[in-house]
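Today's session is about reading a structure prediction critically. Students often jump straight to the picture, but the first step is always the sequence itself: look for stretches that repeat, for charged clusters, for runs of hydrophobic residues. Only then move on to the predicted structure, which in these notes is written as discrete structure tokens rather than atom positions. Here is the chain we will use throughout the hour.
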Amino acid sequence: MIECCRAHFLFHRRIRHPAPGIHATEFTRPRHTTGGHRGNRWHSERVRWTDVLLIRAPADAVWRLTTQVADWPSFLPTVQRLERLDEGPLRVGSSARIKQPGQPAATWIVTRLEPGREFTWQAVRPGLTLAGSHLVEDAAGGCRNTLVLEATGPAARPFGWAFGPMVRRSLRAENAGFRTRACQTGPEAEGSGSGAQA
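Below is the predicted structure for this chain, in token form.
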């Protein structure tokens, strides 16, 4: 039991503080909540993937790349087309139509934004809500870029079974795309490093 707890602690410590050149991966297993009205029960599943990467570039440079979403198709292999449906800086309520490989186009709407640090947006499909989050934090030698995809709703568990491996690959590829572009756009980019979760 002690060894299991120690292994769990070390695993999550590695996730939160990935070393340069290391991709750290985390997958949260499906959980469900149960609610009801007059005896009727419904189940809402939740599945979450996280990818964390240490990028040897300033946090503000990575944040600019993160929020200039119209440019994503030019450097992210996970985005084929992206059309902003509004104008101006990204903000809560902003939306974009995105086509990704192997998926139908979907409209993503920003639900949370903390300038310079984090934003989350959501796309809704039948039985499923997808929430994608981007978190940029200062770290020694650069910044830590965290990508999260969370699926909730009755179809979340089947979605995880069917698309889990693809989601993990996509998060890793997307984070690598941010690292490559950030390291191409500034002098601080020498000697890139990584750390990811998916």
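Discussion point for the tutorial: The domain at 2-34+43-189 is CATH 3.30.530.20 (Alpha-D-Glucose-1,6-Bisphosphate; Chain A, domain 4).
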